[in-house]
């Protein structure tokens, strides 16, 4: 059993659900091999932010470089004889990983932001072509990713749609807190006789990080007559359970460069087969326009496609760990909860969600005396932790509620991935303790 330290509890992989597995002659990976695979990381930094950019092991980087050289050696041979076959192989692996019914349901795109643009562009056409009525509603969570909110503005609002945000509590105590607010927002959307045409639901919100009960929300959408559901699972694959048959969305996207060890950038967009909403197109129009989204996405002009071609090697790497990706997810989840509890005990604060609403990331309350009073304070503190202590971690500002006096207004989003060690979190703990003991406040950074 491989582990990066002795403080993280191990799990028995015998009851882990089976997922696609390629044969590997390398055997179960050892701690020293993990260190070697990630030796290109800056070892002077406690890297607690896997959630933003992910990580890629050296073996997968090597495979990517071979694809790049294959292209550079003879581009015509690469294009005519290798590119489409390689992308189809990657799509087939993804199809099995996420339990889609058919490979045609899986398209490979650059990232989840591109996938959101594809779905929202399709929604905008429905408004402009009269299939949706002016003022009909598109629903999204308040904690939707910033780029997705901008895409709403660029596509849906300009086309005549009304966007309603679902306000979510934070800290959050239960799934019911989210379900209740979602139902209220649906009622607002339908209050003037308008129809809710699309619900955009995050599977794992980015900041603050919360695992959303997507299956339950989708069931509510079906009961309430919402036309389409798009799940933005940017963080999901390799981080939480992703099963297209179980979730039941019309559209679903997730990045493979965040938690599935692929190089940047690669994501899949699932579109349910035989759906009346399946007429999707890539926003970059090239020679394959009209041949289906999967084919369109596989050629959008001359560019580097190598990140999309190394999914087999990423799966080889994953399957060197006991239990494959299911084992990695389970151990990462247990580890991040353990490290989060260690940090809040040291600081006298709390975790922002119960463990079952964490995945491989957790929101950890920072001491109130740090004086985090704005988004700018949060960003400046993050920069200070990086520059002065070698700690890389995103920080979220949560305004105090009415009546709160000495409340926690800053939360750090810690990630745990296979390369992390307990010492990374001890460094973060000690850095914050040092700031507290020195009388530091964020006001000192504002000058």
UniProtKB/TrEMBL annotation:
Pfam families linked to this entry: Aminotran_5
Residue stretches making up the Aminotransferase class V domain: 84-277
Database matches in InterPro entries: Aminotrans_V_dom (IPR000192), PyrdxlP-dep_Trfase (IPR015424), PyrdxlP-dep_Trfase_major (IPR015421)
Keyword Repressor among UniProt keywords: no
UniProt entry keywords in alphabetical sequence: Pyridoxal phosphate
Region (Disordered): 1-22
Ranges annotated as biased composition (Basic and acidic residues): 7-18
Name of the featured protein: Aminotransferase class V domain-containing protein
Source species of the chain: Canavalia gladiata (Sword bean)
